[in-house]
Predict the structure.
Amino acid sequence: MEKQKVSYRYHRYEGKQIAARREIPYEIRLSSRLILDELCFKYNKEMLETEINAAIDKGSVDAFQKLSKSYSQYIWE
C-alpha cells in the first residue's frame, strides 16, 4: 500500500471579517463569581432549614439527624 500524499492550498477567506471579543476584566469575573457563590450558599442553607423544619414537624428523628449533620457545614461557630 502506497503512502498517500497530501497537499494543502491556501485560499484567502473572502467572507465578512469577524471582530474578536474583548476578554472580561478580572475584577468583574471575580465579583460575579463571589456573588454567585453567596447566592448558592444562601439558597442551599435555606433549603436545608426548610427540610429540617419539615422533619421536626413530622417527628422523623433519623431525617433530622441526617439533615442537621449536613447543616453543620453551614455554621462556622
